[in-house]
Amino acid sequence: MQDKEKNIPEGNLEGCDCSGESRVNFIQAQIDDDLKAGKNEARVHTRFPPEPNGYLHIGHAKSICLNFGLAEIFKGFCNLRFDDTNPSKEEVEYVESIKEDVRWLGFDWDGREFFASDYFEKLYAYAVQLIKDGKAYVCDLSPEATREYRGTLKEAGRNSPYRERSVAENLDLFARMRAGEFADGSRVLRAKIDMAAGNMNMRDPVIYRILRAHHHRTGDAWCIYPMYDFAHGLSDAIEGITHSICTLEFEDHRPLYDWFIEQLPVPCRPRQIEFARLNLSYTVMSKRKLLKLVNDGLVDGWDDPRLPTLSGLRRRGFSPASIRNFCERIGVAKRNSMVDVALLEHAVREDLNRIASRYMAVLQPLKLIIDNYPEGQVEELDAVNHPEDPAAGSRKIPFARELYVERDDFMEEAPKKFYRLTPGREVRLRYAYYIRCEWVEKDAEGKVTVLHCSYDPQSRGGSSADGRKVKATLHWVAAPTAVNAEVRLYDRLFSEPDPGSEKDGGSFTEKINSGSLVVLKDCKLEPALAEVEAGVSVQFERLGYFIPDNRQRPLSSAGPVFNRTVTLRDDWLKSQSK
RNA sequence: AGGGGUGUCGUCAAGCGGCAAGACACAGGCUUUUGAUGCCUGCAUUCGUAGGUUCGAAUCCUACCGCCCCUGCCA
């Protein structure tokens, strides 16, 4: 480890958080090599290049953290560039949501906001240059014919009959394509490379197609649009990008990426490096599947708290820091893998445990009456807001003769390991008193409706005068001052680790976890919870982390609505399910 | 005539010829007015398999096996 640190160039040590706990990933190692070789003036400039055709998800977060992180580590820059070369799928709504999500995650592109469409004119000029150099030609083959001529994975393709058109004719035809003289799909501009290449991407790839669609930025100025392979690398070059980080499926495109850069007089020679995209267990990540869930009404929009979209995670209560930490921990490599959601859950708990104030809320209320407590009396008890952070201060909570406690905290016939409330047993009400269950009221079906208890006035605050111990501490809410609320309990959207795999035949929508959303309407909150501001995570003691739903109208008379981000770890529950 | 990748603990992931980091998960224990948090302990004699080179191999060589990606005028 000592030796390793010595190998890091002086200038990069500062600001590099490879000071011991985290190590360089393979991309950082490759960038180090490029820096040592003095490539691109020893600059590091990356970019995050989303196509504005959908919402960002946690897989994008991995890429965002990687690209912006690399720029920070190497003291370079990271651009935000929208890859908007296909107007038939892209919309402004998406560019806005993408910007909001990147900002929310905590990254700042500092004005370096670009669009591939900004370069349409330059890209067109590059294409003309290729034609002049005899490296591109206009092809009249239909889409079907093009496919047929391309050959198969095992057989070489055949040259297009239009491959040997003269430069003059190609120039004329390409200009007329732009001028709108030809129908959509009737002609394309193709790079002249090698129809026998083992790599399909090199079999004279299409670089411009005719497409009459309204573009969100250029309007109807163009009826021809560049393809990804042509536009992406050249946009990188135009922006002075040094390292173009993308996912594994583009590995096969790298020779083409390099080919365009080599053929044209570009200002910079970026290097494409691929890494494995993120797969998370118990969820789906593909845009197609997410879109289906949204369109089929299987979830409540793109920001449904069960979705791995950044807007969904935000609504669910995941903090930006927890997502960044998660992305840090999963690492970056080239092997396909599936990360356990438990790691994401761990990351939120870790962050929220640190920052969330504690409150008491009863989700499934069971009435509890303290028979020896003065009728009509209400007193204020002190409660700390955060047991590990004195600076968080304390608050008063009202206590009264009638309370609500959690249904799960009482069992008439308790198993040996259950040490919460049961007839005859004494437990502590957090920050309040020791109470003992004396008897229970039941309804006609035998369901317990009210717990009658006695309390020890000497135990005010939660500790007894004689020092006797009690095994359990329960959370509670005073009935007279309880705030009614709706609480939504979220769980993993799918019941299988890899719902996206189609190996078992079934559609992923059949694997939806029917218990992924449970809505509780008669929850009782301590008064202070009515004041929690939007976007602020809190802990309901002994239950989990919650956040006010961000779609609820502020003045709703129905009372607050909270979303459960994640439960607290629960060894008792765990031991029960075994 | 195919091309490109990749195989290290249940899940991620370091490792780059000198004797298998770390995290999550899991299992125990201590502390605790949250069965939370925190703390401690355990958890790969072995690196897809088989050969070879070497004093020494997860690291080098050879062969085999598995898995992923590629035949959009999508990105």
Question: How is the topology of this model organized?
Answer:
Blueprint: H1 2-7, H2 10-13, H3 26-36, E1 45-48, H4 58-73, E2 77-82, H5 92-105, E3 113-115, H6 120-132, E4 136-139, H7 143-150, H8 167-179, E5 188-191, E6 206-210, E7 224-226, H9 228-239, E8 243-247, H10 254-263, E9 271-275, H11 287-295, H12 310-316, H13 320-330, H14 341-355, E10 357-359, E11 361-362, E12 365-370, E13 378-384, E14 394-400, E15 402-406, E16 426-429, E17 434-442, E18 448-456, E19 473-474, E20 476-478, E21 483-490, E22 517-525, E23 538-540, E24 544-548, E25 561-567, H15 571-576
Parallel strand pairs: 1-2, 2-3, 8-9, 10-23, 12-18, 16-19, 21-25
Antiparallel strand pairs: 4-5, 5-6, 6-7, 11-22, 12-15, 13-14, 15-20, 16-17, 17-18, 21-22, 23-24, 24-25
Helix pairs in contact: 4-13, 9-10, 13-14
This protein binds one RNA strand of 75 nucleotides through helix 7, strand 6, helix 9, helix 14 and strand 19.
